[in-house]
Design a protein that fits this description.
mainly alpha; Serine Threonine Protein Phosphatase 5, Tetratricopeptide repeat; 21 helices
Length: 449
């Protein structure tokens, strides 16, 4: 994976580039590009996981899946989308892998091809983890890999995220992330890390990396780092599905329950987060009657179970914060003192610039925008739009319109998502119409939404 301009060196990047090529699927009467993009997002991780189990080789699996999507781009406009798009991709990828193995000259590869042909539907692998994508998660979280590499590689192989999207999640340049992925793949080859189900005794040691991956997949789905739509529903659904699988697999791990509760409570707001026109609706302005009551109840029940265990961790504390928001009928009813106290605990346990920024937002609601702004001015989140967005909102509430305008401009320049940019542009346009101190509670893009 190089850094040359315009070059896609990883199979997922190349596949995404083919899927998204302007005009490829847009002639009248053909399948729209968005349909293949949707299948790519939903099927890539599953297809790579299944093919890796069959082939025992991650690189070969990715190449085969890439070939399958190239074939889909060429054939679906004329043939139509198959009844089971994900199954079509897996089957086509498997056939492409067989074709490639047949062309290889070694006897071992010919035996592998014959085995694939003779057993078109191999039985599921035995072990603690039976789901292919969940198994891939634990495989990528092998202790031989550096923690950051484990997360990045799994986002690639399970979530199908591009290098740019993963780089945004890590707040690093794209070239840096490309190099990390190359090193991670090289480490797998050099250390001969197998694709296999870890023994049950090994599962807890892999858990931290797995939870981080699932949460980052959910975060990317909750607020897409790029594109027109605010939410990528398929990624949210996949993260929640994996969270449920983990909770079933490891029911006595409180952080597993905490992560699932966190995702469910945030996901419960999705119907109210986006207007019918696709606009972002911040937490303070959401119609809480539209929140998914079943998800709220399930998430709150998990939080209560975590509290009874009295073994707090970062995901449990974040879930507790979301539960406080879910308890309030309106923004004004929110127990901001409790939110700040929970952020204090989270800061002591797992400090980060993003935790500090969210705490500053809560402090602004509890003690006023001046107190929140004083905290924000101490933070540094290079390359991320949320810091100038929150700063702009607090400056607006303090009646410092000129400074708020400058901060909004900075946030707009950094925001990669069109819905977030549009939201920030609307807030900036409103500056000239609001008097000093007007505006009510924080409405920064992404803040507690």
């Amino acid at each position: 994976m190089g850094t040359q301009a315009g070059r896609c060196d990883h199979p997922a990047d190349r596949g995404a580039a083919v899927v998204r090529r302007p005009g490829v699927l847009n002639p009248p009467g053909t399948t729209p590009t968005a349909e293949v993009e949707r299948v790519f997002r939903e099927a890539y991780g599953r297809a790579v996981a299944v093919l890796t189990r069959l082939l025992g080789d991650i690189d070969a699996a990715e190449e085969a899946v890439q070939d399958a999507f190239v074939t889909a781009v060429a054939r679906w406009p004329e043939d139509g989308v198959p009844p089971s798009p994900a199954g079509w991709i897996v089957t086509t990828a498997r056939n492409r892998a067989i074709d490639r193995l047949r062309r290889e000259s070694t006897r071992v590869d010919r035996y592998r091809a014959a085995a694939l042909l003779a057993d078109p539907a191999p039985p599921p692998e035995e072990g603690a983890v039976r789901d292919d994508r969940l198994r891939m998660l634990f495989t990528c979280c092998h202790p031989a890999l550096a923690p950051a590499a484990r997360v990045a590689l799994t986002l690639r192989l399970v979530g199908g995220l591009t290098t740019a999207e993963i780089a945004h999640a890590f707040l690093v340049p794209e070239a840096t992330m490309a190099q990390r992925l190359v090193r991670a793949k090289a480490k797998i080859r050099a250390a001969r890390i197998p694709y296999r189900v870890p023994a049950e005794a090994d599962l807890p040691d892999r858990l931290r990396g797995v939870l981080a991956v699932v949460y980052l997949v959910f975060t990317e789905g909750h607020t897409a780092s790029s594109g027109e739509a605010l939410v990528r529903t398929a990624l949210c659904a996949e993260a929640v599905r994996l969270g449920r699988e983990l909770a079933e697999l490891m029911p006595d791990e409180p952080e597993v329950s905490g992560l699932l509760a966190l995702m469910l409570l945030v996901e419960s707001r999705r119907p109210a987060r986006v207007s019918p026109d696709g606009d972002l609706v911040p937490l303070a302005e959401q119609d809480r009657a539209r929140w998914d009551a079943a998800l709220v109840a399930e998430g709150q029940a998990l939080v209560r179970r975590c509290l009874r265990r009295n073994a707090p961790g970062p995901y449990q504390l974040q879930a507790a914060i979301q539960a406080v928001h879910s308890d309030a009928r309106t923004t004004a009813d929110t127990d901001w003192a409790q939110v700040v106290a929970l952020y204090d605990h989270l800061t002591a346990l797992a400090p980060s610039p993003m935790v500090a920024l969210n705490r500053a937002v809560a402090v602004a609601e509890l003690a006023g925008p001046a107190e929140g702004l004083a905290l924000v001015e101490q933070l540094d989140l290079p390359g991320h739009h949320l810091l100038p967005a929150v700063r702009a909102d607090l400056l607006r509430r303090l009646g410092r319109a000129a400074e708020a305008d400058t901060a909004y401009r900075a946030a707009i320049a950094l925001a990669g998502n069109a819905a977030e940019r549009a939201f920030l542009e609307r807030r900036r346009a409103e500056l000239g119409r609001a008097g000093p101190g007007e505006g009510g509670p924080s409405r920064a893009a992404g803040a507690a939404s």
